[in-house]
Amino acid sequence: MNKTLGIRTGGRSARVQAAVHRAVRELLDEQPREALTVPQISQRAGVTPSTLYRRWGDLATLLGDVALEQMHPDALPEDTGSLRGDLLAWAQDYLDEVGSPLGRDLLRDVVSSQANDCPQRCAALLTQRLDRLLARAKRRGETPPAIEALVDAVVAPLVYRILFDPNPPTPEQIEYWLDACLAQAPRRRRRKSMTPAS
Amino acid sequence: MNKTLGIRTGGRSARVQAAVHRAVRELLDEQPREALTVPQISQRAGVTPSTLYRRWGDLATLLGDVALEQMHPDALPEDTGSLRGDLLAWAQDYLDEVGSPLGRDLLRDVVSSQANDCPQRCAALLTQRLDRLLARAKRRGETPPAIEALVDAVVAPLVYRILFDPNPPTPEQIEYWLDACLAQAPRRRRRKSMTPAS
């Protein structure tokens, strides 16, 4: 069985995962998240409850897994011609998805799911995606910031405000964080030893 | 009954809260968090389970409430003589408390507790405390950054890395974030309209 970050593929295992994820998404469309139960999901997906418990451990972890997949579709944002444009488009997409009340609940599921390193996988998927935008910028001849600097300066306040602030961040705030980060990029890269990758 | 952010005071209500919080803290010292149950807590605290449900709604919310109190003791860090020193001391305290495995679990409880606006109260308490450090700096004649800039540049990456990174942030990273924020302080304050308070 192939395993990639966050998404398992191959045979029966993949079919079970797809059916369960679909069942969760459908049920979330029909009723409040608090009302969701394991028996409901297993019935809708056509699998036994023990399959769910064996694979995900508990409901919070399953919800976190579904949330991860919804929050990280495979497609990269379109090439806008500049790193600044690409990152703004990415951040706006992220805010649209994760800044909504449902998205915020999904992100909370990810954070509170202790099993399977769900928060770490979420962060790793996000970093992978941003890395691809930075690589695209390099191919254009731009000098992008280090990925860690971008995470600290843009991703962290975006996620912090989604989780802890009554109001989601505004597009102006995101633009402000991004411009501050891009303005510092050359200096930051020379001082890379001061921002240890973790 | 007086109500302040995060802490209720007054009469029987306060006594019940103190007893329940103490019961949770004791039980957390004795056994893993996953093993904690409402009947256990109510027995230890000498209250009925329905008291707990009426007041906190569910176990996650109660754990979030206890976490909030543990994460936000009333004492301000000692005056180190400069805002930079005060903020470094605060951040190191915060990292010691919340960056530990137990602290990370407490923070996750806060994030996943939907009731009572627990995450917002957590952020508000943190902002109140930082505000007091900024006021102290002004009395010294320093020019502190805006609170929102400090939250975005230092608090957000600190909390993001505690929640999503396998390794907690290092003291060097915190120092780097803080120095970048302090270096920008005068410029940021002039451009305040670009960082709408939220």
Automatic annotation (TrEMBL), chains A, B:
<dbReference type="InterPro" id="IPR036271">
    <property type="entry name" value="Tet_transcr_reg_TetR-rel_C_sf"/>
</dbReference>
<protein>
    <submittedName>
        <fullName>TetR family transcriptional regulator</fullName>
    </submittedName>
</protein>
<keyword id="KW-0805">Transcription regulation</keyword>
<feature type="domain" description="HTH tetR-type">
    <location>
        <begin position="14"/>
        <end position="74"/>
    </location>
</feature>
<feature type="DNA-binding region" description="H-T-H motif">
    <location>
        <begin position="37"/>
        <end position="56"/>
    </location>
</feature>
<dbReference type="GO" id="GO:0003700">
    <property type="term" value="F:DNA-binding transcription factor activity"/>
</dbReference>
<keyword id="KW-0238">DNA-binding</keyword>
<dbReference type="InterPro" id="IPR009057">
    <property type="entry name" value="Homeodomain-like_sf"/>
</dbReference>
<dbReference type="GO" id="GO:0000976">
    <property type="term" value="F:transcription cis-regulatory region binding"/>
</dbReference>
<dbReference type="InterPro" id="IPR001647">
    <property type="entry name" value="HTH_TetR"/>
</dbReference>
<dbReference type="InterPro" id="IPR050109">
    <property type="entry name" value="HTH-type_TetR-like_transc_reg"/>
</dbReference>
<dbReference type="InterPro" id="IPR011075">
    <property type="entry name" value="TetR_C"/>
</dbReference>
<dbReference type="Pfam" id="PF16859">
    <property type="entry name" value="TetR_C_11"/>
</dbReference>
<dbReference type="Pfam" id="PF00440">
    <property type="entry name" value="TetR_N"/>
</dbReference>
<keyword id="KW-0804">Transcription</keyword>
